[in-house]
Write a structure and sequence with these properties.
The chain is built from ten helices and seven strands. The protein is an alpha+beta fold. Strand 3 and strand 4 form a beta hairpin. It is globular, with a radius of gyration of 20 Å.
Length: 281
């Protein structure tokens, strides 16, 4: 369900975030080729799935299916595994705290692909920091880690007040659902079914709220993801088309050009720095 009561959890988390002192411990980037057996970490762990999809299960049996560009957050000490359906690459961030984590959050949370590129850029930046830093730099990174944690919890919708299931909430849920499941969605009615609203009602409300159709938003999300992969990976166009839910590379190229005004190859080539001219004689 997209709507539900989270009052006790919200209250506990808010009190905790106001009083705890967070520390950035480490961050790294690594390949995620297949299955990672059950393990645990003492600090809070944030895993950003840059490329690839799969599922994670904790020791209590809770399973989260994650998509490319999504984030899984594990509370301190939670035993979990990771099973990649589509191999890829992960960014891991460890954040320590001087207070015990609230009992209400003893498992894991999923954050759909963040809409703000700034959040993704911060995850990538923290993963590239050195392990040994000067005290002033460490203090700055502690604050950055705390801000990142709070923003991700907001994105996971566990710090927002409960809302009634209004049309606005339904279309926002549809928007989020498409961001998470864009690769596997075949038609608009299945989005309406997933969020619990009629197909015609969703079409009308979505266009009124966002100025575009549900189908246009679905295509836009896929193209945005394709742009990320073109700029930040060496994957061939056929693989990118498949990862973004397009039937084939030709259809992908057609949609990409219609939305962006350039071909996928042109987008990738434009991002490659050009060598300065040779002025030697």
């Amino acid at each position: 369900m997209f709507f539900g009561g989270l009052g006790a959890l919200q209250s506990a988390l808010t009190d905790y975030l106001r009083t705890a002192r967070f520390t950035f411990e480490r961050g790294w980037r690594h390949a995620a080729p297949g299955f990672c057996a059950f393990h645990r970490h003492q600090p809070f762990e944030v895993v950003y799935h840059v490329v690839g999809s799969g599922k994670t299960t904790d020791a209590r049996g809770k399973t989260i299916a994650f998509e490319e560009d999504g984030v899984v957050m594990y509370a301190p000490g939670v035993t979990h595994n990771q099973d990649m359906t589509v191999p890829g690459e992960d960014i891991c961030i460890h954040i320590g705290s001087d207070l015990p984590w609230p009992e209400e959050l003893d498992s894991s949370l999923y954050v759909p692909p963040p809409e703000e590129t700034r959040l993704k850029a911060e995850l990538i930046a923290l993963a590239g920091l050195p392990s040994n830093m000067a005290p002033a730099q460490q203090l700055a990174c502690d604050h950055r880690a705390a801000a990142l944690l709070i923003e991700l919890l907001h994105a996971a919708d566990v710090l927002e007040p409960c809302h009634e299931a209004t049309p606005e909430r339904y279309v926002a849920a549809a928007r989020d659902y498409i961001r998470v499941h864009f690769r596997d969605i075949h038609d608009v009615p299945e989005v309406a079914t997933a969020v619990g609203i009629g197909y015609d009602h969703l079409r009308h409300c979505f266009r009124k709220a966002y100025g575009m159709s549900v189908k246009q938003w679905h295509t836009q999300v896929r193209i945005e993801r394709a742009q990320d992969l073109l700029l930040h990976s060496n994957l061939p166009l056929k693989a990118i088309a498949d990862l973004c839910g397009f039937e084939n590379a030709r259809y992908f190229s057609t949609c990409f050009r219609r939305v962006t005004g350039q071909t996928p190859g042109g987008c990738r080539a434009a991002a490659v720095p050009k060598s300065p001219p040779n002025t030697e004689h």
